[in-house]
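[[Sequence with tokens]]
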Amino acid sequence: MQKTSTRTLYDYWNSIRGARSAPDRKDIDPTRIRDALANTFILELDESEKFSFRLAGSHLCTAYCRELKGRSFSALWHERDHDAMETLIRAVTEDHAVALVTFQGTTALHTKVTFETILMPLRHNGSTHTRLLGAMTALDEPYWLGVQPILEQRITGLRLIWPDDMGMEDSVREVATNVVNDVSFVGGAAPIAMPAVVYGRTARRYAHLAVIDGGRQ
């Protein structure tokens, strides 16, 4: 986690969940995450069975030059990344993993900026299938951010952290290490050829991504 807002929200989420795999929506106190609030969002499952923004911080809306509340989160991603994002979201909502994503946002003028995003499970009415808590922060803030809206975004790195690994930095499981035709890799790793099975886990390819099934041992 490279940005303070990401770490702040993750640490708060981890503290309020206690022994549970995910905290309840009503447990969240916005005053406890003031420093990260402008980059924080909550997603909800909409009528089309996709996730949309229920709440979105001011910095996020500024980056996209529009109000994000009610807009589709799923639609933000390039079509080649839709399957990979759906797999990540299932890992968060069904397996209660934490997903850490880096992506490159591009404007109509082809200027680019890299963001870090975290997605964490959140209980609502006893279920973790309809809500997600997250943060999205630009790694650097170019002068044009907030003037030129982000129109397209492509994943450059994926990582999952499983509930039984919380607090164990050396056991964070990497989900995708190979991003073809991109200079950014999770953990700074160089591009490698992904076999069908890695350390006993099945790898599934989604266009330029190889997603390795993680999970608890």
User: Anything to note?
Assistant: Residues 166-210, 212-217 have pLDDT under 50 and may be disordered. The two ends are 24 Å apart (CA to CA). Helices lie at 4-17, 58-64, 82-95.
